[in-house]
């Protein structure tokens, strides 16, 4: 186990039989037309819950869906249905009221109870310290009914919310299996880097990506940054290779790209060719031929071949963000080629952030066959970890 993981208690440190375990899951899911979509978060959390239940724990699941006011802010009734594909489970549309507390007290060994969306409690999301949250009504009502708190929700560890930081202040607490895997992979990719180390950075959120780039270049533990997606276009523009309309939203990113090129130009790789749409079809052109205002939807074949070679020779690969508009099959090629290169490389790879995990299955790849890769299910927490920031939900779980 890595040095970082040695700071935590895991499920192996507890005898959970007959114990009431408050289990913080992150089953926050994509919602389309009011329907919660079944994705890995539900499947992966279900595995840990089943392990606890098989060991005779009385499992009480705390989880959220969406943010108050948003279209995806829902009760957890549909999540209960989806979780029932993996185990028997009771759902109660209550969190701290008499009904929820009676249901917790009546649990038998091995039974699982899902409470309602914890964000329905206003105090859950208040910006407070772990000490303050531990005194909330939420924690004061439920903690006395429980013996152990297990957090399997790495993807919400960047939030100092009551269900994340309040309970571990007052209960014996440890990390769940999914959290263990996430921490082990992140720790290896960020703190025990084997060189050559390559970052593949794409997607559509330049501010986030430039934060990561500046941070890793400053740490000097990076050999190449392969830019794709909007990020690649920004570098091509900053080099004066492609014309681009630079609105307010991109202005600062182009300046940051120029500064990076001045200081660290040899580590930054940008596309040689790109894919555009001509009469509804994919066409590849060299970057010098891109016309003003012409939308670029993917990296071209020469670029993915060059990038794949760099990935093949790497020992560590970190990927964030797809390489193009993968949602359209014609423009999924670049993203698929990068995933294939990662799959065929002996390098340890870490993939994550926003849509990266969804993109793997959407382009027809099987995550289970990416033997040396860890695919993080986290977005904001993944990003903050890469930036070397402390996550309140992790800090509060440290026991050694
Ligand atoms: C996520 O989806 O990244 C987590 O569930 C956290 O959700 P939040 O950004 O609404 O806190």
Topology of helices and strands:
Elements: E1 20-24, E2 31-32, E3 35-36, H1 40-54, E4 58-62, H2 77-83, E5 90-91, H3 98-105, E6 112-114, H4 130-134, H5 137-142, E7 148-151, H6 162-170, E8 172-175, H7 177-191, E9 197-201, H8 206-219, E10 224-227, H9 229-238, H10 248-264, E11 268-269, E12 273-278, E13 281-286, E14 298-299, H11 301-312, E15 316-320, H12 333-344, E16 348-352, H13 356-362, E17 373-375, H14 380-386, H15 392-395
Parallel strand pairs: 1-4, 1-7, 4-6, 5-6, 7-8, 9-10, 9-15, 10-11, 15-16, 16-17
Antiparallel strand pairs: 2-3, 12-13, 12-14
Helix pairs in contact: 8-10, 9-10, 11-12
3-phosphoglyceric acid is lined by residues 26, 28, 67, 155-156, 159, 379-380.
Care to give the gist of this entry?
The chain is of the alpha/beta class and 400 residues long. The chain has helices at 40-54, 77-83, 98-105, 130-134, 137-142, 162-170, 177-191, 206-219, 229-238, 248-264, 301-312, 333-344, 356-362, 380-386, 392-395; strands spanning 20-24, 31-32, 35-36, 58-62, 90-91, 112-114, 148-151, 172-175, 197-201, 224-227, 268-269, 273-278, 281-286, 298-299, 316-320, 348-352, 373-375. The chain has a 6-stranded parallel beta sheet with strand order 5-6-4-1-7-8, with helices on both faces.
Percent of residues in helices comes to 25-40%
CATH topology of the largest domain: Rossmann fold
The N- and C-terminal alpha carbons lie at a distance of: 14 Å
Task: Tally the structural domains.
Answer: 2
Tell me the number of helical segments per DSSP (H or I, 4 or more residues long).
Answer: 15
Task: Write the CATH homologous superfamily of the largest domain.
Answer: Phosphoglycerate kinase, N-terminal domain
Strand order across the biggest sheet? 5-6-4-1-7-8
Q: Which stretches are poorly predicted, pLDDT < 50 over at least 5 residues?
A: none
CATH class annotation of the largest domain: Alpha Beta
